[in-house]
Amino acid sequence: MTVQLTKRQQQILRATVNHYIVTAEPVGSKALAQRHSLSPATIRNVMGMLEKVGLLYQPHISAGRVPSDSGYRIYVDKLITPSETLRQEVEQLLEDRLQPARRNFETILRHAAQVLSHLSGCVALITRPQTQTTTVRHLQLVPVENQRVMLIMVMDTYETESVLMELPQAPEDNSDPDLVSQDLQLLANFLNHQLPGRSLHELAALDWQELGREFQSYTHVLQTLLSDLIQRAHAASPNPILVGGFAEVLRQPEFSELQQAHPLIHLLEEKQDQLWPLICEWSQHRSGAADAAHADFAHDKISVRIGSENPLTSIQSCTLVSKTYQKGKTPVGSVGILGPTRMAYDKVMTLVEATANYLSHCLSQPA
């Protein structure tokens, strides 16, 4: 249902939502009249009309009004504009606080979740970069014991993948450990020339004949090991979502009782696989050209799921605000804030956008 509101109706709806966000108490006409140059009777009439069209409701007969999910939706879509100044301030704050952690992206993500939850008073959700979208930064071959070597791949997000490999049996006259070590160093140098910047998808299609004659004895074992790593990455369930701010959200009156907070806590601790598709919608459409419109939406806009718009019953009293962060033009992860529908939407949307922009900036930096 599309609702067309006059300027006065928009003014009263905005004022009602703002007042309720601050006080967590149903809003009466007298409370608004003290702040706006309108009579209580005028405000009461407008609030009555907004209730009739489903944008406000009365939790009790004698109480004031509270925004409905539909009221919040109009508020978010039409009545607020996230602050550009605040976005720049948050990005600078993240830069100042997280600069010491710049060399370790995992640490950056954890610290960003802490900062985000502290500033929003809600739960911060950040996903790690998805393995299929990351690229190789560096490769090492480390001798472990006789005929065994550890293959270590360092990805561009500083995550590592490692596996033990059995070397092909060396001829009697070529079993000198020093010679083997030299061969491994040459092989590592060659691979570090060939593999950096390639994704795991590209490694699967690599032409191993490029290794050259001197490394042909290693071709089969390397191809098998890297194929195993690729299959492991494809088969793996999504990385756990980094969660920050349990203590922050439990201070909100909506979750003051344990039975109110329990479904949310259970979801975040035990059922993250259900939350994943909501915060990472982009990952569902990444590979299909027919879904380009969905991908563009995920890249360009902040997603705001309000109350009943969330398919999970456990968070239908909450709002989930999320946005992707990217490596170049490719979405690799998401930043989200989950809190009560009574959240400061303009501030939260700005926090999410600023954090996503900051993480994208970090991933775009050269090694």
Automatic annotation (TrEMBL):
Segments forming domain Winged helix-turn-helix transcription repressor HrcA DNA-binding: 4-57
Pfam family, one: WHD_HrcA
Domain Heat-inducible transcription repressor HrcA C-terminal: 106-349
Entry's Gene Ontology BP terms: negative regulation of DNA-templated transcription
InterPro entries tied to this protein: GAF-like_dom_sf, HrcA, HrcA_C, WH-like_DNA-bd_sf, WH_DNA-bd_sf, WHTH_HrcA_DNA-bd, WHTH_transcript_rep_HrcA_IDD
Superkingdom in the source lineage: Bacteria
UniProt source species: Acaryochloris thomasi RCC1774
PANTHER family attached to this UniProt entry: HEAT-INDUCIBLE TRANSCRIPTION REPRESSOR HRCA (PTHR34824:SF1)
Entry keywords, A to Z: Repressor, Stress response, Transcription, Transcription regulation
Family indicated by similarity: Belongs to the HrcA family.
GO MF annotations in UniProt: DNA binding
Annotated function: Negative regulator of class I heat shock genes (grpE-dnaK-dnaJ and groELS operons). Prevents heat-shock induction of these operons.
Name of the protein this chain belongs to: Heat-inducible transcription repressor HrcA
Gene that produces this protein: hrcA_1
